[in-house]
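Comment thread on ticket #2218

A.B. wrote:
> Attaching the input chain for the structure job we discussed in standup.
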Amino acid sequence: MSLCLTGLTVCLKDTPPLFPPLTLCIEPGEVAAVMGPSGVGKSTLLNAIAGLLSPGFALMGGITLDGTDLAPLPAEARRIGLMFQDAVLFPHLSVGDNLAFGLSRSIRGRKARRAAVDEALVSAGLAGMYDRDPASLSGGQRSRAALMRTLLADPAALLLDEPFSKLDTGLRDEIRGFTFSHIRERGIPALLVTHDPEDAAATGGPIITLPSPDRPVPKRP
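C.D. wrote:
> Ran it. Output below, let me know if you need it in another format.
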């Protein structure tokens, strides 16, 4: 199941495109990276892929997932998971109930759903923490819980919006490795946007750098 972008860019009405057209095909289990400074349109790119563009923006080019054209589909029908800078968990739910919130509807029955959450907690190094208050988790534990909640929704592709940027160096390496290993194990394509060269290099996949908004688009030779 590949996520493919063909000549993809975004613009506001009567303005030039935010970034040069992107053509990229991300294979199952592969993590690609798009780099660039703040304001270049990285998050807008992810919103376009996920079907979450704000009013006023126009999408140009194509997006396909496993050969299916995503452009006409609403966000909830695209089966694309999102991870953000902040690992936000619902404060009124326990850790386990946070994960259960993301469970795919294909998992039915109380016992099956509880078993799926318990398995995810073990995978995330959070065994026995089903009833814990999310506020009691460390930063790394919250990040792992947030990732597992996203994966329990059974996404067909994953978008990563600088999810490691607020972690300290040691924890950043741990959570980055944890995230990428789960993506590879599940065989889903993933796209990371970042301004950090180390994050981009750690993907082991293709890296595209968007030009700064005040810098002319480089011409191809």
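A.B. wrote:
> Thanks. Noting for the ticket: The first helix runs from residue 42 to 50.
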